[in-house]
User: Fold these one by one.
Assistant:
Number 1:
Amino acid sequence: MRNFCDGNCKKSISDMYAVNVFNDTVMRERLPKATYKALRNTIEEGSTLEGPVAEVVASAMKDWAVERGATHYTHWFQPMNGVTAEKHQSFIVPTSDGKVIMEFSGKELIKGEADGSSFPSGGLRATFEARGYTAWDPTSPAFLKEDEGGITLCIPTAFCSYTGEALDKKTPLLRSIEALQKQAIRVLRALGNTTSNRVITTVGPEQEYFLVDRDLYKNRKDLVYTGRTLFGAKPPKGQEMDDHYYGCLKERVASFMKDIDEELWKLGVSAKTKHNEVAPAQHELAPVFTEANIAVDHNQLTMEVMKKVAARHSLACLLHEKPFAGLNGSGKHNNWSLSTDDGQNLLNPGKTPHENAQFLLFLCSVIKAVDMYPELLRASAASAGNDHRLGGHEAPPVIISIFLGDQLTDILEQIERGELKSSKQGDMLGVGVSSLPMLKRDTTDRNRTSPFAFTGNKFEFRMVQSSGSVSDSSIILNTIVADVLGEVAERLENSADPKAEIEVIVREMVINHKRIIFNGDGYSNEWIEEATKERNLPNLPTTVDAIPALISEKAIKLFEKHKVLNTSELFSRYEVQLEEYTKQINIEALTMIEIGKREITPAVIKYITEVSDSIIKVKSISESIDTTAQEKLINKLTSTLNNFNKALETLEKKNADAKSVTGDILNKAMFYRDEVLKVMIELRSYGDELEGMVDGKLWPFPTYGELLFYL
Ligand code: ADP
Ligand code: MG
């Protein structure tokens, strides 16, 4: 085909896509056949990787990376604090003639020593045995990171302790994927499927974020230190006009998004949709879904790339769940499904779901799993940041329920009555203009208020925090569904008539677990009432309420049974998460104290002085001039400043007291929630009141209006 740009135009997407990934195509090209086959076996079947194979792969990987300018490699891993970590090593090996050669051995590929005693371990690793190991995860492809610091070969790895306990978010994810695959295949076999070899968990994470001007951002200590604004009066305009959602992109934002797409494509991340979200300055990016393990890695990379590219555009990308009070927060939607290696989506209902016994069995297994373990799903989205978002009237409520939509709800009702006959069909939708095409109406409308919604051929878990890893919720979903599928498999395998048994199982599941299905308005107060009082569903408003589920007897039994997390790993996660919660609030409190003392108080005093001076000057002209307005203002300013100061002193005291709370980490977390956070809210209200009174030119940091609209 003729090339229209004669080499002068920019690279096409297909030229750029995955150029920085050591993926299957590259491996096939560069590895000897036998090595390639052995590696594929490891990736697909989980067979143990032999030393000589690793040796050949390492050498090919290094050659590929060095040809592209890489000088260093790093084991890239995901410690329990939800970010990614890396320690760079160069490939160089000095030779006897005073030169260097580039080398990379199989051993270096497979195993690294992370020596990271300062990563959170929740007591799993005392400092005297601080050794940690990173282990190559061949199921997620290695990639090159390109930035001002050079080009680095990144090898996705799992991170574990000297004694083999998981210290990261990848190890349990891989274990949960295996657990689910094992049970799902059993079910498929029992249903007579002999062709599928594997069941794959698929994940498509939608990522919300805010963009603000970098110079403004730098003048906000709260954003810099904590990711959210701790002060800030409401601007005259918020999101009430609904003019931002899907609105046309500002050029500066569009240019950022274009760069993000290209950077991600080079890394093999299939960024697909981008649009403006509900709040001003809020946006979303969604990739095409892929295998869970890769999707999690890709989402971590996406967050990293977003921050980096934002800086290049003199922007700051805010991933916090609630950067601005009074506006929508950001979440991450975990779109989750199961498919077979021969391409069958097990949650695809087909045209006539009522005839699709396999679909109904898998659907009801998910329903049962969620109803059995709602606390765990809730816990998977718990963090100090997300506490500000969940349960508000813009984000999913903290009560877990499932939205199924009309068609499936109707089918489940038929099942319950024991007379399954039909599937409601989506009809044609005319828009009343003859020149426009007739559209096929979906069988269900959307429901944005549900935390866990069936959306056509997948479930969408919407509680996940925007800044967190999508691994946690995937681990929980995989494990709880594996558990139910295990029971199902057991029954089918022992049944003389599996077909008849499916009907029995599905009907039982519907009857016993229908309380979790709710298609109505999840934001309404009536729902909270009904959910907690009539349906007995758990309502766990904060992280402190949610995290203890991780160490419940029920959870320990579940995770031990499926070998996803053992008891000490669960306790370590419990501790790490609560500790992170307390640390986060402590930093926020300290930041408020600093801003309060060093920025707000001096600005207010300056203004009070100006106004006082003005009274003296005015009176010097004539005692009879009325200065009531100034005097009123001074009164109001000083009384608010006094309240502000009192709250500030209380916050200082409470935050110091928090340090001495002893016993289980839960006590400390509770103290932060009930004592420290409470005063922070009070302090903020006085601060925001002062902002509304003080001369705008004297206010020490950018306002909400500037942050949100001056882009
Ligand atoms: P919305 O939720 O706004 O309707 P989309 O329809 O664009 O968004 O889909 C959201 C995400 O769901 C995308 O990342 C998409 O790739 C993902 N997705 C679609 N099918 C599946 C599936 N079978 N498994 C997991 N994720 C999926
Ligand atoms: Mg969505």
Number 2:
Amino acid sequence: MKKVKRIGILTGGGDCPGLNAVIRGVTKPAHDHGLTVLGILDGFEGLVEGKAMELYNKDVSGILATGGTILGSSNKGDPFHWPEEFDGKIKIIDRSKDALKNYEAWGLDVLIAIGGDGTMHITHQLSQMGINVVGVPKTIDNDLEATDQTFGHDSAVFVVSEALDRLHTTASSHHRVMVIEVMGRYAGWIALHGGLAGGADIILIPEIPFDWEFVYDKVIQRNMMGKRFSLVCVAEGAKPKDGNIVIKGKDPKRTDPVQLGGIGELVSRKISENTGLETRYAVLGHLQRGGSPTPFDRILATKFGTSAIELAIKKQFGKMVALRGWEIKSVKIEDAISRQKLVKATDQAVLAAHAVGVSFGTEKL
Ligand code: F6P
């Protein structure tokens, strides 16, 4: 059987800290095994349009601690759902044959795709066309069921926690309710972990629709007890029991057209109108995706990268590396994408938050 000699690697979807550490973790051992590595640029866009560069050790040296991705990324380049402009209108076409053509023309034996659930879905579809694939899970959202944690999440949580520490002092000085809106799409992991680490008094997440009255009660009660400020950490996908998710806009070119955003401002306004307390809000946005990965993410990303190249060499195609407990295992990509990992009301972090008095905007969970 033909040996694996040439690896393609790409980073798909939104970027996050730790992508470069994976690229390094794949490329260095690949060269030690005498393989060549082709870095595909801008995610699947590069695979469809034929944009790539050879990766040598010098290219991956010194990138462990840098955020972003040296290969570029995109969440608009789905080969099976390719947005093309015709007469000023966006038409969605299938360009997966171009992806296959480039894979073959480049002489690749395997494609290592680093990305979140959108990337893993596309990777799985490409494998059904005959492309050999290995997946590496990334996303600040931490919403992939098959792995205990994705790299990038810890770095995002660190940013949220630090932001809450900063808001804490100004909230307490001015006796205000400070609301911070964080990312995570339809999963509340960033808000839950960041809020817990940063001492939020109220955490609102998509999995636990909240009741406005409980939110107002919490900040009023704190005031009555002499705590004249409160910190609210709200996930961008959180929604009230009687309302909808707040959407900032739609972009048909994206794999997922929905752009979330605006719930932080709404929560801040409603608290002010209904309690008379002074409020301010901040949207952390892409600060959560930028900058240097935490040590945890650097280690996880390096382990993921080096395990992915091992899978590729052993021809364990169609698999994704995953963290299970303290060990790196592999799972079938098709199993990995079958379910999204959402916060359960029984999660230990939820219970711990509850035990120290955090409100989720509900009576009891
Ligand atoms: O999936 C990662 C993520 O940062 C989400 O938390 C967020 O909703 C989304 O990407 C933002 O995407 P974009 O950078 O395309 O606006």
Number 3:
Amino acid sequence: MSKLFYPKDYKFKDPKIRNQKELQDLYDRFANDFEGTWDQFAKEKISWLKPYDKVLDDSNKPFYRWFTNGKLNVAHQCVDRHLEENKNKVAIIFEGDDGKSDVITYRKLGQKVNRTANLLTNEFKIQKGDRVIIYMPMIPEAIYMMLACAKIGAIHSIVFGGFSAEALRDRISSAAAKLVVTADGAFRKGKSYMLKPIVDKALEIGCECVKKVCVVKRNFEEIVIGDKDVIYNDLIDLQSPKANSPLHDSEDPLFLLYTSGSTGKPKGIQHSMGGYMLWAHLTMEWVFDLKPTDTYWCTADIGWITGHTYAVYGPLSVGATTVIFEGVPTYPDAGRVWKMVEEYSINQLYTAPTLIRTLRQHGPTEPEKYDLTSLRVLGTVGEPIDEETWLWYYNEVGSGNCSVVDTWWQTETGGHMISPLPAATPMVPGSATKHLPGIWAEILDENGKMVTKVGEKGLLCITRPWPSMARNIWGDTDRFVESYFNKNDFAGNMIYFTGDGAFYDEYHNIVITGRVDDVINVSGHRLGTAEIEDSVNKHFYVGECAVVGKPDKIKGEAVFAFIRLTEPCDEKLILKEINIILKREIGSIALVDSLLVVDNLPKTRSGKIMRRILRDIAKKEEVKGDLSTIEDPSVVAYIQEKFKEKY
Ligand code: PRX
């Protein structure tokens, strides 16, 4: 049996959920009165500007509506409402790549957000419902922009700064955005890099919808200024620091965030204002034990969902201090993160297993050199954490005194779904433990029947709606229903299918086994095999290819390609050239790590590549599942043999 790690009481002063009994009581409250319990939390945590008249409208499943006709303003919730009592409290500590920091109080944040909101309205003529693309480094202006959009009801869609011009173009066009906000560039590892030329390129190859580009000057390098470009720094101080908080509907979209699916182009996941904010706020309090007096650091970039919910909206809604970092956690050395924890006396640290593995590899004893006693909760997200890494985090970073919360969730869920609660849940290394109160997570078999036996694998599903669930895929309602709600729909319930496999351990904890679809998880970043394959297939000598995830010691998974060539070529050269295409079409995060050239790929009789077979081969596992539909069974042994020879 795996060892249980019990929370250390003395670290927690008055946590929201104090112990297992209180946790059980909360489960019971939700079970006995689902809507009434949500109602109570919604009233307690959200400053409604006009009360809602219904907690949950499920008359048009799976298009659930939460807190119907309630009005709020997310910028008011995250900033303005804190001003009366806490105006000079620090909202954001920003640390630049160069180590210089800037402290932004709630008052200053409020003024910046208002000025930015006025800029959006006056200069860029942005109105409620318009889409604004944010393609920015991790600097405070990116957060002002998010909150300014929220304030006026514009829908932001942040594109991670590592995506290429073509990937940016696709997202801008799909969202039909009127405005792109970017920076001239920023700093990484002591060097300046550029972003604006990537926006220029994206606009050159498409995006007629874009009327203006707003450029924040950060590195002050020379840029080409075109007709559409407006410099933020020239205009921002001319705007009034005052702005109204218009009333927005609970169901109005707050943002779109593009994420990879198993097929086709990335999906613009659409989140709401009311339900999303409630769950962001509640999970900050429950999972991180976040208090308004805490200083908290989530290392995720705002280009990912973690950066949205847990670097910006969640911590600011609670009224805490959130740390925003421009640089790279291993620069100038592997002590950077620990130095920052000491310097800002950080109470909760939230990061990805890949970063923990990297920091450990570069400096296993580095945490000892710093005073990390301020830490109370250590979070992980985005990918499974192996036991060894978990134990290092727990023992070396937390000195065995902090709770480790392995949080399972997705872009689509908006916030945490499965996680230990730091003062209440006994932890098991490598397990996100149990679903949170208010969340119904079940493991179902292929036929929609509940899996109950320890160790039996099934599909992780969410069987009841929750407030922060995705509301739609932008512009593709059919795909929304098809991707998430068409499986395991038994007993008349609409069941949300997560795309992950899972099983129960001996404590009835949920252990996530990873994606069961064609999605790869590299360093906690989601990549669709179809997108990568589309690009790889563009190489002149690639006849066909299949891409899968191959286990990697640091990144969790690395991209591995099985390729059939039309002409014999040098493998190293092919890899190099394929990666040039991938860098151009998607970005550096999607590069192929290694490949195997084969004469044939396993296919069904109808010609579909059987990627699951290749997944098993890349994992060096026995090839499982039904092979009766395979066109030529001898291909499996042939590829296995070739793979063994090389890897
Ligand atoms: O496979 C799961 C994995 O990341 C996927 C969601 O990716 P994304 O939407 O990019 O969101 C990442 C940040 C929330 C999931 O389907 N995943 C996420 N958290 C965990 C995880 N796998 C194992 N353990 C986790 N804690």
Number 4:
Amino acid sequence: MDRNIDKLIRLNKFIADSGITSRRRADDLIREGSVQVNGHTVKELGVRVHPGKDRITVEGKLVRPANQRLYVAFYKPENVLTSMSDPHGRPTVKDYMEELPVRVYPVGRLDWDTEGLLLLTNDGEFAQKVAHPRAAIPKTYLAKLNGVPTREQLDKLLRGVSIPGGKASAIHVSRVPLGTSQQYAWYKIIINEGRNRQVRKMFEKIGYDVKKLKRVAIGKLEIGHLKKGQYVFLGPKGIEEALSSEWERPSKKFRPGSRPTNRPKGRR
Ligand code: URA
């Protein structure tokens, strides 16, 4: 996990900043053995902690850092609800966020049966920026279809097809060399809106069912090496990438028949 979301700070400052007590009293609590960091009692003063990552308790109670902004890039598996609760008891993204010291909320949503990159944050302004249609942040998906559309059909997606809620268009669509089946084909599609089941409805409109759907990038932020169910914290670079409205037009060598362009990235 990337730990550079914020810098390390002294434990007594962390406790005081959270508003539960003064820095001096925090020192007393530490000396008394009432403070635990990631399950271990810490009695030395001057220990530094990572507010975005370390779990700090005082007298057994979790201390939530004050004013801490957290940005999480999560690989949502399929069959997980993009919600922080579910009255029917289905798995939700919250199940994966239990360890976080602050509550975060999903930015936009992925369908139950869609997997891939989902951002979560407690920064409402950031969430709005990413999700707002005016920001037109490109979202890149890989879609497995039950057939091979013609160029003419794909061009329709670029020109725009009408789906519930109005016309929807892709800014890019191309075949990618994934899978070996003759029956199914994979396509990369980039859209810069986020309407309900938009990718599925657009392909349906040209006569194809989406059998599998995976979001691989938001703006310039790629899913990279993340595995299903894993998350990383975003630092300033990752945040900037997620907010980028630019997208790279694939060069000739990435046209259908060559490798997909969403090569995994390391640190962000
Ligand atoms: N489009 C869809 O159809 N589903 C998603 O989950 C996201 C985009």
